[in-house]
Amino acid sequence: MFRCRTAWFSKSVNEAHLKFWVQEGGTITGWRKADFIFSEDATSSDTLRIYESKDFLWDKVTVFHSLFLSTCEKRQSVRSVSIGHYVLPPVSVQHGKDYSRFIDLFMDSLQKYSGELSDYHSKHFPCLNCGVCVCLTTTKSNEM
């Protein structure tokens, strides 16, 4: 499931998650070289160091809650789980809310969308009345 992927694990992460990562073909590495960074506690000292790094401040790394791995294990799939639901922001961003309620989302509990889906292309906007695509042309004055 995680073959050819690397991850860093905070000391706050349950050892079972780490073992599952390795069992499914993942490799453990330093956080600066990892494809994924996992933590269970935004206040953990090793996670705090990542939040204070230039890489984090410049949006080069994202910390994910390790519950992502639990969900992957339950579903026996990584493709059916949206990792975006497991972003673990710094405590200052969490505003003291019960963040675990945000993390504990399952695809089955999400409301289904019944409308028509279409791809978004920059500079192309579908007309809400007739559905015809409207293209905006770029001029030199618009590019500045």
From TrEMBL:
It comes from Oryzias melastigma (Marine medaka). GO terms for cellular component: nuclear inner membrane. GO terms for biological process: homologous chromosome pairing at meiosis; meiotic attachment of telomere to nuclear envelope. It comes from the Eukaryota. This is Uncharacterized protein.
